[in-house]
Amino acid sequence: MSRLLHISASPRGARSESLALASTFLETYRELNPLDTVERFDLWDGTLPQFGPAAAGAKMTIFGGGVPAGPEAEAWNAARTTFERFDAADKYVFSVPMWNAGVPYILKQFIDVVSQPGMVFGFDPVAGYTGLLRGKKAVLLLTSAVYGPSRPASFGSDFQSPFLRDWLQWAGVREIAEVQFRPNLATEDAAAGRERAHEDARRLAAKF
């Protein structure tokens, strides 16, 4: 049996295209993997800790070989708890809308919280970083409403997919697949593209 964690980065609920893709993916996945555990981590549910001065201080204390104390220890423990929830999964599904060419700030906050030494990565002064999330795989369900790869630069750029792929690979995740739904909602009927994206999600779920 495997544990799958769905990390939801959209605050739009039933109106979210990325969440709709995730629902399609997970419906197929559950049908084919009834013994697996599937959990959703809604990044907007208020449980994600801040990563402010105390947490940043704790990170640098750890880098220096020390042990965080006081507020730093509290912030470090909150980051560790979030990481342990993340690390408990074997498979990740990220449903992510594009915001300002990138990802929603809440997802960047999640990445900053869990990307800690001894958790997501190791570091050697000579060899550099080593990703510690070994043996895991991920699916990215990505949406945008204006940007599209075939459109002119005036329709935006994609710092969404490259950022997430780079972070996951840096963290040690080697098997990464994605489904993109990128209609120009201002000028075109998105129904055909939506149907294709959902079919892609079903096919990917069947072999995930």
Can you offer a commentary on this structure?
This protein is α/β, with parallel strands linked by helices and 208 residues long. The protein has one domain (3-206): Flavodoxin domain (Rossmann fold). It contains six helices and seven strands. It has helices at residues 17-32, 53-63, 71-87, 105-114, 161-170, 191-206, and strands at residues 3-8, 37-42, 91-97, 121-124, 128-131, 137-143, 175-181. Strands 2-1-3-6-7 form a five-stranded parallel β-sheet, with helices on both faces. A two-stranded antiparallel sheet has the order 4-5. The protein starts with a strand and ends with a helix.
And the CATH topology? Answer: Rossmann fold
The percent of residues in helical segments reads 25-40%
Total individual domains:
1
Mean pLDDT: 95
Q: In angstroms, what separates the terminal alpha carbons?
A: 13 Å
Main beta sheet strand tally, sense and closure: 5 strands, parallel
Helix segment tally: 6
